[in-house]
Structures are given as C-alpha cells and as structure tokens.
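User: what does the whole thing look like in 3D?
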Amino acid sequence: MNRASVVFLALLLVAIPLSLFAGRVWIDPASTPNAALIVAELRLPRALLAVIVGAGLGAAGAAMQGYLRNPLADPGLFGIAPGAALGAVIALWFGYAASAWLLPLFALVGAAGAMALLAAIAGRTGGIALFTLAGLMVASLAGALTALAISMAPNAFAMSQIVLWLNGALTDRSWREVWLAAPLVLLGIAVLWRAGRSLDALTLGEPVARSLGVDTTRLLLLLVAGIGLTVGAGVAVAGIIGFVGLVVPHLVRPLTDRRPSQLILPSALAGALLVLVADSVVRVLPLVTELRLGIALSLLGAPFFLGLLLRMRKGTI
Amino acid sequence: MLSAKDLSLGHRLKGVNCALEPGKITAICGPNGAGKSTLLQAMAGLLDPDAGGAALDGTMLSDLAPRDRAKRIGYLPQSAEVAWDVPVRTLVQLGRMPHGDQLAEPVDAALAALDLAPFADRRAQSLSGGETARVLLARVLAGEPDWILADEPLAALDLGHQLDLLRHLRRAADAGAGVVLVLHDLAHAMNHADRVLVLDRGALVADAPPERALDDVTILDVWGVAASWVGKSGKRALVTA
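Assistant: Here's the predicted 3D structure for the full assembly of 558 residues, as structure tokens:
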C-alpha cells in the first residue's frame, strides 16, 4: 500500500463515523430519539453505499486514464454508464420502480449489454483509438435511447422519476443496495488492480507494451470487465454520478509516482471519500428538497475540469 | 540467430529471408515506405505476417509465449512517447516487466551504461530529447535482452547524441547482444553497422557488409540518387552528384 492509499484510508476512516451524524437532523446520541435505529438503518447503509459507489468510480477513472494515456479520460467514455442508465430508465418507463430489485437488475443488464458489445468489438480490433470511438458510439446510442424513453414516457410521473433518477442520488437507500453493489464493485476493483502492471507498460505506447509481453486484447477485456462491474453496479444503485472518475485521479496523481498501477487503489479510496463527503454535504444543505448528489458533484467537477484545461494549456501538467 | 523466413505482409513485405547474428550491429535501410519498420516489428514478434514468419534460434516467434519472447527481444519504437511524468528509474524498471521482478542491479547497470545515474530521480518529462532517447534505450537494456531492435533511434537526436547512442549500442553488441537498427542516415549505416539489409518496396535487395550493400549502384537503383562514397573505411561520407 503506497503513501497516497494510507492518507486516503485514514481520512476515510475519520469521515465515515462523522458522516453518520450529519443530515437534515443532526444526531446527538444522547438526546436524539431512535438515534441507533436511524444510524443503523438509514445513515450507515447510505454512508457505505457512498463509499462503495465512489470507490468504484475512482478506481475506474484511474484505470481508464491509464489505459487511454489521457488525463481527460472518464469511465463514461466506454458507454457502460449510459448503458446501465438506459436499463434503469426502461425499468422506470414500465413502472417497475416500486419493485426493489427490478430497477438495479435492469441497470445491470444494461451495463452487461454495453460490456458484451464492447467485448465483441474488442475481440476484433486491437487499436485503442478505434475501440474508444466504438465506446463513444455505444454511449451515444444508449444516450439517444434514454432520451427517446424520456420523450415517450407514459405519464408525467414516470418522466419526472426518470429525470430525477438520472441525476444520481443516495437518498432512501438501504442495506439491500449495499449488498447488491458491494460484491460487484469490489470484484471490479480487484480486476482493475490486476490490470495495473499492464497499464504501466502502456505508458510507453501500445507497441512497447506488447514488446514487454502485454497481451493487449486480454488487457482490454480486463478493463471492460473491471469498469463494467464498478461503474455498472454504481449506476444500478445510485444513478449517474459524473466527474468522480475524472477528478479523483488528478487529486491523487501528485501523491504517487504517477504510474497507473499506483493510482488505482488510492483513487478508489479517494473516490469513496469524495462521494461520502459530497453526500454528507447535500444532506445538511438547508434547501427545501435535497440537492441531488449527481448535480452537486457536477457543480464541483465542471469548474475543476475547466481549471485543469487551463493548466494543461499553460503546460503545467 | 534471429531469422526471417519468406516473411510476407500485405504490400509491405514480400517474402523477406534473412538470418541475423548476435554480437553484431545490423542496419535496415531503404527509402520511405520500403517496409523497414514493418520488417523490424515483424522480427520483434509484434506483427502477424500473412505468410512465413520470424524465428529465434529456430523457434517461430508465434510459438513463443509473449513473455518469453519479451525476455529475449527488446524493442525500441521510433516515437519517444512517455504518457505519464514518472521518475526515470521507474521508467527504466519497466524493462524488467517480462522477468516479473524488480531487481535493482540490472536497472542500475542500464542507468550507468548510458550515463544516467544522476538522472535516476528526475521526472521523465523534464528531460531533453537526447536524455529521453538514452532513458528509453536504458529501459530496453534493463531487460537484458539477447536482441535489441530499434526503429530509427537516431531520428530526433543531434549529431553528438547520435554518435553517443551508436557508441552505447556498439557496447551492447560487443557484450553479445544482437543489435538491429532501422537507419535513414546511410553514412551512419556505412560507418557503424557490421551488416546492412536494403529494402525496396517490401523486397530485400541487398544483405551484405555495408561497403557492398550500400554501393553506388544500389543507391542509384533503390534511392534514385547518384552518389558516391568518399573517405576512409569507418569514416566515409556520402556525396551526391
């Protein structure tokens, strides 16, 4: 475990218990009625879900940037998140939202569909550029179908449900979502971690990586599986939460020796921390309705991204 | 022995046969589009030929596991791409990847061989073009390959650094490695290679010591340039008419 992992793990271990107190109602263990029940059944699963979703997005972002050798790459580029979102939107369209399992299940099927499509393309092409374009096409197809579903929503309620869900949130989640997402995200992070050494070799370009014995087709399949599991499971339980995968590796990179393999674990921990803190903040903001987590993170992420572009233009990255 | 047997790949290579020896510097020359880089990559096992193949000591490269091939053949591409600003030592250490170890000794030896020891902790993107070229060659040397295949390693370097890098490659050849270089500068090929392969439109048209492979007739035939060599052996210069 490198220095960056230790730093973010320590911060996370401090932030998790603190986040349990934060919310519309601040919990004072001595005086709040049913404090233990609120923490055990509402706040703890929500905090753990934030950690799980954030960890998956952070690790996926780090792996994606390493794979594409581009600090502006985002896990959304592969089209897995839009694929999962499309699955969820179809579930909402048919009014399955009331059933606890159907929505995340549809989302996972959507993510798996995008993964299968990408894997089929990956088997035929070797080039990263062509594959990335294919991923973008999958993303835009899923996005177009999602827009179609919204425009043809059977009623206003379904439409508002879809739009709200697409914004991403951890409101009213329970242990059920935790048990659904945790194993998939952990497996995904393990897969991405395993791809780390090959990603290091890609630092010198694809031909050198192959000359060092990297099987680039296998690496691509590992990436598709790892990002599919982390991002797909995250979208299934929390909706679309943007910018974490893009921003987190940038925060972590200066704390490491900048090898992609050294970035995956600390990015998972930092992603967990970012989503946990952001979700705690949206809970305590004095707004009439809770600010959606996806919106909050995009509000934070967009200016960061612009700043990044400006710094790159000055050549300081 | 690294050899090509009837190596064909689309229009780029047409039935190339050659057998290269270790301990020597072999230059691959030819005009643009002659198939030099393609031949080098095929002999590094990075391209699947349509017909024929490359073999290492009698074993077809396609029959070798990628890692076993990687332990024995080091490949240096023309592009000096380093995507992330990693420290020099970390970059050179990538050469150990096929061996699956993090041994310090070969990495230190490679850094020392290219006079890079003082640069070990510098960041890759803070280096000049000449320094980067040496670091990338050190990465190949750290893997202790039997063969070093480099695609225009001198392309981005000034004359001083070109001669420097050739000196390092000669040292590697003297230590027993087979060195294969794609070279555009015919004078470098003439003065520094033990053997020259001349490619023209995918076909091997000469395979001989430099004086014979790069004689006036071949240069006129292949490059379409009337030129002649002046100077003494090892210090020749090409003068065009």
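In plain terms: The longest helix of chain A spans residues 35-68. The domain at 3-313 of chain A is CATH 1.10.3470.10 (ABC transporter involved in vitamin B12 uptake, BtuC).
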